[in-house]
Amino acid sequence: MRLKFSLKACSIRVPGISCPKELINYSLGSFAELFLSSDPASIKCSYLPKMQARRLKLGSRAAADVASELLKHNPKFCVFSSRHGELERCYNILYALSKHEDTSPTDFAMSVHNAAAGSFTIVNKAKIPCSSVSSEQDTFFQGLTEAVSAFVDHEKVLFVDFEGKIPQIFKSKFDCRFDVPYAAGFVLGPGSQFTLEEVDPLDDEDVLLPLSLQFAYGLLNNKKHFTFHAHKRNFLLSRTS
Hints:
Blueprint: E1 2-13, H1 28-37, H2 50-54, H3 58-70, E2 77-81, H4 87-98, H5 105-110, H6 115-124, E3 130-133, H7 139-149, E4 157-163, E5 182-199, H8 211-220, E6 225-229, E7 234-239
Parallel strand pairs: 2-3, 2-4
Antiparallel strand pairs: 1-5, 4-5, 5-7, 6-7
Helix pairs in contact: 3-6
């Protein structure tokens, strides 16, 4: 796998970080410690109306907010990727049904995987085609691949990767090492400014952060080469300009 692209803009929503430029002040390890130790409620959302923000759980709220911020760069296609989407809403529905109780209309309406993408387009009255991707532990890379593939028809593509909280009942079934809401958004375009390719994995490397946050860290720190440590796969991000 080898992907080539240019970066037009990047932003993130994570606990403990108010501005993506702050990442240059941290090593990857210290950024990971801050991410895991900060209060998820500290994620700042400034672009969504409060009423709409309250309808979304933290992960989807962060995704819709970062997408709303990056809309000013005029993307022509959007890709949202999330392994679990609004899993908290789904759990609420299942729990209510198990108790023979009425389900919440809001939980029902917002439980779909593309809730973040739909909320983003509705709030901003954005007539932009959107895709919603989920692919287990490869979700980030499949989303990025779809975004790059869209260069055939679009010069600017908005790619947003996010996750929310995992309900306790599911934690024994999922890899939940990063049970912290976050979102990372990128406006990408054709070009050879960056190349991403798979390299041989190193068995002793630990995955410190979700992949999209590693990606953002590598981009924003102006590193010539940066290696992603994924689940049994490693990828090298190279900057050519």
